[in-house]
Amino acid sequence: MAGLKPFPPRPQVQQTNSQNRGRRPVKENPNRINNEITAPMVRVVGDNVEPNLVIPIAKALAIADEMDLDLVEISPNAEPPVCRIVDYQKFLYQQKKKQKEIKAKQTKVVIKEIRFGPQTDDHDYNFKLRHAENFIKEGAKVKAYVFFRGRSIVFKEQGEILLLRFATDLEAVAKVEMMPTLEGKKMNMILAPKPKK
User: Fold this and answer.
1) Cis bond upstream, residue 80 (ω within 30)
2) pLDDT in tens, 42-92
3) Given this model, what pLDDT does residue 127 score?
4) pTM of the prediction?
5) What are the pLDDT digits (tens) for 116-147?
6) Are 167 and 174 in contact, with CB atoms under 8 Å apart?
C-alpha cells in the first residue's frame, strides 16, 4: 500500500444559521457586567462603597478594577441604573441559591380524589372519611365526588346530602373550598386543610 496518497484535509465549512437550528443557544450572562454597561452615569452599591454614590461609568469601572472585582448592573431600569461592585461568580452563585430557596418554599398543591356512589353504605363512607382526614392532615386538598351511573341521577339530592355530611364530619380539619356542584354525571366538592393557628 506504499503508493497510496493520504487524503487532503477537508475544507472547514462555516455553519449557517439554518445548520445551527435545533442546538441550544449559548447561555449569556443574565446581567450586564463591566464594559457591557452602557449608561453614562450609574449608582454604585456594594461593600466598602460610599452609600448612594452616583458617578460616571468610567469611574465606577476604575473603582471595581482597583478592588479586583466586577461591576454588575443589577437594576438596569432605575434612574440612573444601579450597579453592584462584587465578585460576579459569587454573585451568580448567591442568586441561584436564593432561587432554590424560593422554589423549596413554594409548596405544590396535591389534590386527592374520593369517590362515592349516591347510595354509599356507612362502612364504605367511614372508610373514605378516614382516608380523606389523613390526606387533609398531610396538607393535600380533597376533591370528593358522587358519580351518578345511568338513571341514578334521580338521586342527586342524596348525593348533595352525602357530600355536605362529609364536609361536616371533616370540619375540624378542613374547610369547604367549593360547595357541591353538579357537572355532567358528577357532583363535586373541594375541601382544603384549615390554616394552622
Assistant:
1) yes
2) 998 888 788 778 889 899 899 888 888 988 898 888 888 898 888 888 888
3) 92
4) 0.46
5) 887 888 899 999 999 999 999 888 899 999 88
6) yes
DSSP one-letter string for 36-90 = G---SEEEEESTTS-TTEEEEHHHHHHHHHHTT-EEEEEETTSSSPEEEEE-HHH
Look-up of cell digits 382526614 = 133
Q: What are the phi and psi torsion angles at 183 (to 5°)?
A: -125, 105
The residue with cell 448612594 is 52
Q: Tell me whether residue 147 is exposed, middle or buried, using C-beta atoms within 10 angstroms of its C-beta: 0 to 12, 13 to 18, 19 or more.
A: middle
List Cβ neighbours of 189 (8 Å cut-off, separation of 6 or more). 143, 144, 145, 163, 166, 167, 176, 178, 179, 180, 181
Between helix 122-137 and helix 156-169 the angle, nearest 10°, is 50
Domains with residue ranges and CATH for the chain: 30-102 (3.10.20.80), 111-193 (3.30.110.10)
